[in-house]
Amino acid sequence: MSNRRGPLDWEGAVNAWHVAGGVYRMGRREWLTEAGWRQAFDDGVRTVIDLRNAAEARRRDKDPKITAAALAGIDVVSAPTEEPGDLRFAAVTGPYLNDPAHYAENARLFPDKLVGVFRALALAAPRGRVVLHCAAGRDRSGLVAAMVQDLAGHSDHAIAEGYRQGARGINERYRTHGPPHDRERYLPEPDLAPLLEERGLAVVAFVRELDTRSFLLAHGLREAELEAVLALCAAGADTMGLM
Question: Which domains does the chain have, with CATH numbers?
Fold first, then answer.
């Protein structure tokens, strides 16, 4: 099994971490090698939920080539967290979601999308463990991961640190490989630390004000689906993050 207290060691995985129970998070799945997919499968992963919009789900020239056999036994499910091109959202976030201060607006504008993510988690739960991913593994993954941690009963500290882990992980990727475009940049520690302190607190404020359980039920998730998600969040009786 992978070391859950550090970055997951699936070959090629970028910014990959344990969230709670049987739920993990990471950056784009196209970074995984064939060996990485086999390692994820051996760790019990049976479903990958892609939080990106459909147009983002594509292989790049430098991504490893993967055969269909490498994905055998793992379902890939599309469950975007937002409506692409929505002008109301773009007026708040700019080109894309990159700040936890805007998570509440995501939930306000697209509650059906977030319910769709948790419905996908509920459907995946009986098959095994689940990986959530977006592009960087930071904000769309961070939004959903915080909601999962809220359902799992994690502390404010654990939820804030979950976000900071993901933000540090992709920042390190930018240091070694460069950012994907000019709207992102590598931040040295003196710049990064105060930003992450503030943003970690913003994630906690978002999820506590939201009340994930009530939010999901109020917007159409069924009780049975919620129970399936709760069971997945508790899979393996993992108590990481409860302190």
Answer: 17-234 (3.90.190.10)
